[in-house]
Request: fold
Amino acid sequence: MLVGVNADRVISATFVIGSALAAVGGVLIASHIGQINFYIGFIAGIKAFTAAVLGGIGSIPGAMLGGLILGWTESFATGYVSSDYEDVFAFALLVVILIFRPSGILGKAPTQKV
Reply:
């Protein structure tokens, strides 16, 4: 507010843009699945959360990298093994990454203050 930015307008614009992107995502998922029900976005939401955790919570480039790695893993797993195990490979990758890098791929380890 001190530099002339209208905070209420920025918050409103953020909600409008976020809602519009969610609507576009919902239409794309519905057109991919071919039906509409209440649980249509559950798996997509779980995969988005998995990608964010995989890349590192709080890191936008990490979330993007996590989404790419998650997508490639699922694509290769369904191509080489079976499409029945698509979700198994996605969550197994998450567990393996979190064992070795608990903060995610691009996440920063928490620093302790003395």
